[in-house]
Design goal:
Chain lengths: 392, 392
């Protein structure tokens, strides 16, 4: 058993909780030696000798074995993480944007420097989904991973469908409660969920992608008409990120989806996240927990630190096994509900139209459309058009 | 990567599904070489050359690396597993009764013979709870594990509370549907759930127990009065197995429990199982899936076989870490609802009584009682008395 010395970047609630728990734990045999922060003048609950605003005091400190990166800025985080690994230090990070966008670089860094880079907190915070994909679903029997990966949008959707308030008002409430960022675009447009999907695509199927490769569609255009449709048809609406293997092709997207009321995904409310795994024998497994917040993030970071005590590394078995075998496919059909009030969707983009409805309140169609057609359709971005996935 | 040769005991649906999936998988690089069954005359979907009724043709077969034990009889299973490990073969088993009752012996066998013994399917079938306790919750930060560990009783309770039918009728329905054994005592009295709790006590806290050490109370006495109480107070009733660490003491029991309607445990219906883990930062995690049946069991067995390809062993870190530190405690209070129609519970057994109610329909009290008092109280076993745990 090691006695790991930690250098921490960022000392918000996660960092503070981490310090508290490490002091109490017998077995996570680690101690914080130095903390790098932006503002040295701010009052802190620890002795001033812990703090520095000079990152090299951590990165070039030979006493420090592990860098724990807990800052928001993805570019600054990449710089820190790169320098840390190049200095032979293992790294724990929660920065999903950085990881999703620079996965290949980060893999090379850890391989070149023979260090470990763990990031369980980057995907659904406290839900140990990466570790389960690495360790338990370490074979080719996995067929799909899907779920609710973003707590802010799930909070908004829960309120939107329960209270029938307009989107802007619910968003404001979420922001006031701290469940949504002041710039909510990353959450609301499904980009944050997509970052997590990119990371899971790699651990589920060994597939390296860029966030730009994955289709995402947001929740901000959902209106009363859509909610009414959902409720009349026994659905709720959830922002679902999904990847699925069909033979050697991987299908992946992040789209608001009608989910049957009573299903486990429909019951995943507010800031909770859920991940459903489908595997051999077609049996589905659910992992459920808080997907954001200080404590859930802290508990995942702590588990990573604990694993480093045993020299744990992700083995990336899927990448080695599936190397080049699986590719991202956009040539598959989505069954889509498209509601429109002004501009009409272009019917020729659809493989088939199952239903059409028009009224004074709004119009909709239900049709099958290939993902590559959907991605390039301009009508989809019109303010008066909204699309929601219908699963059978 | 190995090419594991498997010898299988038992060839029901799990064995057959396993054969099917192994043929399709590229990465679970294993093949079945021999299958031991009781009745050679029964028609089988595989070539007759696979089958034998002589167990030594598997146990003494040097070609076979791994024995997969899929039979019901715990005593026969112990014999097979013992002989297999002594012959230097790794073992995969789903036999919770055998494992719970002979844990210490089985640990010695695998250590002495330097083989691996995996049994994920023995706890909540497809839910990877053992692996998560071993790998992800591999430190002393875990504080409690609880859940619904038995699908048959959960099916019965779901029907009992939804339809208001008498217990005997619901039990009959469950038996007709194959969700309960013809001798349902192991399920209904909470003994099966207790076996799983014993296994989890070891992987959660490193504590070796015997099933007889753990208190269990069944669901067969739940009547209309109890159900009415639950519904009026916003509860449903679930058979909950729980273990919890309080400093160096471990509390463990398996008791029907009032669970708030709307909570995730209340929403775990029919044959589903759920496990809730509480860890540092007080954040709870839920794992959810089918807890019984051929496919869920098969998928867990398959994951164990897949792990053996990488020489995976349970490391039993908790046992090494907590060696002798944690002991089972019975000196803690349970808040109990006790309904009685004839005989009265002995009030002196309780630390305190919070409520008393009497009517023509029945009487109840709500009180705090130490587990060691509850265990020895004879009134608890009276046919006209039923106890259900109340959590705050």
């Amino acid at each position: 058993m090691k006695n790991l010395k930690l250098g921490i970047f960022g000392f918000g609630c996660v960092g503070q909780g981490l310090h508290h728990v490490l002091q109490q734990s017998d077995s996570v045999n680690s101690e914080i030696v130095k903390i790098c922060i932006k503002d040295l003048k701010k009052s802190r609950p620890l002795d001033a000798s812990y703090f520095t605003d000079n990152k090299d005091e951590l990165l070039q400190n030979e006493e420090i074995d592990v860098i724990v990166e807990l800052i928001d800025d993805a570019d600054a985080a990449l710089e820190i993480v790169t320098a840390a690994m190049n200095a032979g230090k293992s790294v724990v990070s929660a920065n999903k944007k950085m990881i999703a966008e620079h996965l290949e670089t980060l893999l090379e860094l850890q391989s070149k420097n023979k260090v470990s880079f763990l990031y369980e907190a980057a995907c659904c915070a406290s839900i140990p989904i990466i570790r389960n994909l690495e360790e338990y679903y370490d074979n080719d029997l996995l067929t799909s991973v899907e779920g609710i990966f973003n707590g802010s949008t799930n909070f908004i959707l829960t309120k939107l469908l329960a209270d029938g308030l307009p989107f802007a008002q619910v968003l404001k409430e979420a922001q006031d409660l701290g469940f949504a960022e002041s710039d909510p675009r990353l959450d609301v447009e499904g980009i944050d969920a997509k970052y997590k999907l990119c990371i899971l695509l790699f651990h589920a199927f060994g597939l390296i992608t860029k966030p730009d490769d994955i289709f995402n569609y947001g929740i901000s255009k959902i209106n009363e008409f859509d909610i009414d449709y959902a409720q009349k048809h026994g659905y709720t609406i959830k922002l679902i990120a999904k990847c699925r293997r069909v033979n050697d092709a991987i299908e992946a997207y992040c789209i608001p989806t009608f989910v049957p009321t009573g299903s486990v995904l429909s019951q995943t409310s507010n800031e909770y996240n859920a991940v459903i795994l489908e595997s051999a024998f077609s049996e589905s497994q659910l992992l459920y927990g808080k997907g954001a917040g200080d404590k859930p993030t802290g508990s995942a970071v702590l588990s990573d630190i604990s694993a480093l005590n045993y020299d744990y590394k992700y083995e990336y078995k899927k990448q080695h096994k599936n190397d080049g075998k699986f590719g991202l496919s956009e040539d598959f059909n989505l069954k889509l509900f498209v509601r429109y009030n002004g501009v009409s969707p272009i019917l020729e983009d659809f493989d088939s139209i199952e239903e059409k409805y028009s009224s004074d309140r709004g119009n909709f169609l239900v049709g099958h459309i290939k993902l590559h057609e959907l991605k390039k359709s301009e009508w989809l971005e019109d303010d008066t058009i909204n699309a929601i996935l219908l699963n059978d």
